[in-house]
Amino acid sequence: MATPLATAQALKLWHDVNLAQVHGDEADLSLRQVTILLTIYMEAPPHTIRDLAKKLNVSKPVITRALDSMGKLELVARRRDEADRRNVLVQRTVKGALYLDRLANLIGASSKSL
Amino acid sequence: MATPLATAQALKLWHDVNLAQVHGDEADLSLRQVTILLTIYMEAPPHTIRDLAKKLNVSKPVITRALDSMGKLELVARRRDEADRRNVLVQRTVKGALYLDRLANLIGASSKSL
DNA sequence: TAAGACTGAAACGCATCCGTAACGATTTTG
DNA sequence: CAAAATCGTTACGGATGCGTTTCAGTCTTA
Q1: What pLDDT does residue A4 have?
Q2: Which of A5, A39, A57, A107 could make a disulfide contact with A9, Cβ separation 3.0–4.6 Å?
Q3: φ/ψ of residue B58, rounded to 5
Q4: Using the 8-state DSSP alphabet, how is residue A25 labeled?
């Protein structure tokens, strides 16, 4: 991006995307949940609960519960690490990818009208 | 903006700003709350509860409660409409303006690193 | 192999959010 | 001026999120 977004532009972008989310009938995730979801999909695996908790600087139960709720929505999946069965590996799903694709399109469309 | 954000860029922007919010110690507002706040500050007054509810396509109690919580944080203020005392006019505050200014800076800074 | 460390999950208590349905206060209408 | 309409709020019941603490399962190490 050549020039960073000016204040009004940045806020308009934020407003438009958030408004679309509110209008849409998708389940709206919490701030932490979206951040977790994005981390899983943007950074290279493996993703463990502990790593995610450290990256976001939140407690492990926050991650566990976020995976519970997003798991119900099939946005992410869990799998035991067979090499070290204490670990749980968080994995991507088709629905999760679609969810983020839709989000990216929303952002892209809003940024176009700046 | 010359070219709209590509998928990866859009998601990185969203991730970075959300992560900063999670890391920060500010009260994190819900999706609806931020949208309401942004609407109040970006569109011309007056703002009534009914108008806001209609714009966001949510019920009036959602607006009332959002104003309750954001009012406690002094992000917005309420005032009776003396012309029609049934109405409540939602008003901006210094803290609210600062809050959004910080948010805009966050977005601007993240967009710079694309 | 027994003691300790580590990992994710469950339990508990608290706070907050939501939608629907009611309710008082105020204004408009007939 | 009484009846209806409008506005924002409150009350209710249910769902969800959070932090801290505790726990069971698994690995490491001494």
Answers
A1: 61
A2: A5
A3: -130, 170
A4: -
